[in-house]
Write a structure and sequence with these properties.
The chain has helices at residues 30-44, 59-72, 85-95, 126-139, 157-164, 188-197, 227-235, 263-277, 291-299, 311-321, 344-360, 365-369, 388-402, 442-463, and strands spanning 2-4, 20-23, 48-53, 76-82, 99-102, 111-118, 122-123, 141-143, 151-153, 178-181, 204-205, 240-244, 251-254, 260-261, 282-285, 303-306, 325-327, 333-335, 341-342, 376-377, 381-384, 406-409, 413-416, 420-426, 432-439. By secondary structure, it is an alpha/beta fold. A hairpin with a 6-residue loop joins strand 12 and strand 13 (251-254).
């Protein structure tokens, strides 16, 4: 028996290079989730997979449809419940199963999506399976299995906590106070557990999961989303603060003054210690990561590997190179020991370890990170375009007229003007071009970015 699935008109826009994500229900709905599950199982012949989900309002319906699709294609489902994306990655690695998490990560409340992984948390990209699944979804014809798969519920929290806290010197962390802005996302359960398991105070903001994101936007690295956390850090005289995104796979750090610390600075802080433990260790960066990260890696004898922006691409580069660590400007931090995936908790624990020693030496959080704060990086600007390839062709032609010292064509363009450098790249998740620049003087970076934003905006208006 065959099942035919009728999809929404704009469903193809939800298929990105690194995941499936779009506006609900125009681009992704229950029929899409059902078809993706069937395509995933049938393309790879999976007989069992693990499924998790987030707190978005449309998630229960999408989860139900996805589980139904997997079962009708003959796969049994291990339901690990409402979890952060990193918990799904851990479950996939720990249980040695492929899996899926229903989430739209940091995207706005009207979005939802599906992140798919092969066994041991290897993510799917367009090249490693998403395009094949998209083709099966487009065909819309699926062969029903002779026997439907079963559903079992399983918690992996105890195994996860044992894994994550292995080797942590709890005594050294005694007495610290860290404000945690959950942002009504999925990170509250993990932070509540750490509050119980570690001798640290973790006062929490916006702890209750709420898919409407009523208190702030879901991206913790944007200044406009850090106001409440910044004020609370100062008010409660905390050591520092942290903010999370919707599915708990991004983390932002603010110092004791409530000022945002660039993710590359945090990455550099961690990278230096990792290279001390493992000389010549490989570490992954991207075009959008502040140059201080790459410089710290090489200056300490590590090997710096450039990857495309996007969590799946960094993970792929880590597996290929054997890198121990990687970082993105967006608050993703990747660990070899965590199945080459992103772990906000491992990142937090690493920073706590370094800070505990710094505090013992009489330093504040801002004093600890100051040696790495050599450059000023702008916030990224996103400009929506109809055709990214056409826009990039126009940009390349314009850059040649500006005569920079060097242009590296990788994941868009990395442009070096000497005193200012930065990236112009296609967005992974949107029909857009992203720009971010850096310099020793903030005004210089802002000026160059503004001029190039005006140009990209002009060609965007022409091509729409």
């Amino acid at each position: 028996m065959h099942t035919k699935v009728i999809l929404p008109k704009d469903y193809s826009r939800a298929f990105k290079p690194a995941d499936i994500r779009g506006v609900y229900p125009e681009q992704i709905d229950e029929k899409v989730a059902y078809a993706v599950a069937r395509g995933f199982v049938e393309e790879f012949g999976y007989k069992k997979l693990v499924v998790g989900y987030d707190m978005r309002l449309s998630t229960p319906a999408l989860r139900k449809a996805f589980v139904q699709g997997a079962r009708e294609s003959g796969a049994s489902v291990v339901d690990i419940g409402m979890v952060r994306s990193p918990m799904l990655y851990f479950a996939s690695g720990h249980l040695k199963l492929p899996g899926a998490v229903i989430t739209a990560s940091h995207s706005p409340a009207d979005y939802n999506g599906i992140k798919l992984v092969h066994t041991e948390a290897v993510p799917l990209t367009a090249e490693t399976g998403l395009d094949a699944i998209k083709q099966r979804v487009a065909a819309g014809n699926f062969r029903d299995a002779k026997r439907r798969g079963s559903v079992t519920k399983k918690s992996v929290r105890r195994a996860y906590r044992a894994f994550i806290l292995k080797g942590v010197d709890k005594k050294s962390l005694k007495g610290l106070k860290v404000i945690a802005d959950i942002g009504n996302g999925m990170a509250g359960v993990s932070m509540a557990a750490l509050d119980t398991l570690l001798p640290i105070q973790f006062p929490m903001l916006f702890k209750k999961p709420d898919g409407r994101f009523p208190n702030r936007g879901s991206d913790p690295c944007l200044r406009k989303n850090q106001k409440a956390l910044s004020a609370e850090i100062v008010k409660k005289k905390a050591d520092f603060g942290i903010g999370f995104d919707g599915d708990g796979d991004r983390i932002a750090f603010l110092d004791e003054k409530g000022k945002y610390v660039n993710c590359a600075v945090i990455g550099a802080l961690i990278a230096e210690r990792l290279i001390e433990k493992e000389p010549k260790a490989g570490i992954v960066f991207t075009n959008l990561t502040s140059k201080v990260f790459e410089e710290t890696i090489t200056e300490n004898g590590g090997k710096a590997y450039r990857a495309r922006v996007g969590h799946t691409f960094l993970k792929e580069k880590m597996r290929k190179t054997g890198a121990v660590f990687g970082a993105e400007h967006s608050g993703h931090f990747f660990w070899r020991e965590f199945f080459n995936t992103d772990s906000t908790v491992l990142t937090l624990l690493a920073v706590l370890e370094v800070y505990a020693q710094a505090k013992q030496d009489g330093k504040s959080f801002s004093q600890m990170v100051k040696p790495y704060q050599q450059y000023h990086q702008t916030e990224d600007v996103v400009i929506h375009v109809k055709d990214k390839k056409v826009a990039l062709a126009h940009i390349q032609e314009h850059l040649q007229k500006l005569k920079p010292q060097k242009v590296t064509k990788f994941d868009g363009f990395f442009v070096d003007f000497g005193d200012v450098w930065g990236a112009i790249k296609p967005s992974v998740t949107e029909y857009a071009i992203k720009l971010m620049f850096e310099s020793k003087r903030k005004t210089d970076a802002v000026k160059v970015q503004k001029e190039l934003v005006q140009f990209v905006q002009s060609i965007a208006d022409k091509t729409k």
